[in-house]
Amino acid sequence: MTSYQRGLKAEEMAAWFLRSRGYKILQRRYKTPVGEVDLIAQRGGCIVFVEVKARGAMDDALYAVQPKQAARVMRAGEYYMTHHKLTGRDMRFDVIAVRPPQHWTGWVRWGRVFIHIKGAFL
Question: Could you tell me which residues come within 8 angstroms of residue 106 by beta carbon, excluding any fewer than 6 positions away?
Fold first, then answer.
């Protein structure tokens, strides 16, 4: 499996994780002229912009979000809010770290697979 395919699978898993916690997925892989957001979700009145990181070890996934990526997600989030006329609504920037289960093709669950950091950056 290529890193691109692993990234898509991680985003799919993160979307499933969010839906299981009451979020509605609004967009996946939202591309703008100023950046990209992996997932855009909504829960209640809050729009949530999510950066998904997958690595073999959870610590590696958490440390993979660099300031440059955080700035890209924030720019894209502001672009989304402006272009969808949602200014003034609550918004948040989260990170979901994914440590894939043993087999990407199955949903084998062992150990901690997800860490959801709400309000990871401002």
Answer: none
Sign of the torsion angle spanned by Cα atoms 54, 60, 61, 65: negative
For domain 3-117, give its CATH number from 3.40.1230.10, 3.40.1350.10, 3.40.50.300, 3.30.870.10. Answer: 3.40.1350.10
Cβ pair 3, 45 in contact under 8 A: no
Query: What does the alpha-carbon distance between residue 51 and residue 7 come to, in Å, rounded to a whole number?
Result: 11
Q: Tell me the C-alpha distance between 19 and 16, whole Å.
A: 5
Amino acid found at 75: R
Over the stretch 41-90, which tens digit does the pLDDT of each residue have? 999 999 999 999 887 766 777 777 888 889 999 999 999 999 999 988 99
Q: Whose structure tokens read 């100023």?
A: 34
Q: Is 56 left (phi over 0), alpha (psi -120 to 50) or beta?
A: alpha
Percent of the chain with pLDDT over 90: 55
Residue 56: predicted pLDDT: 74
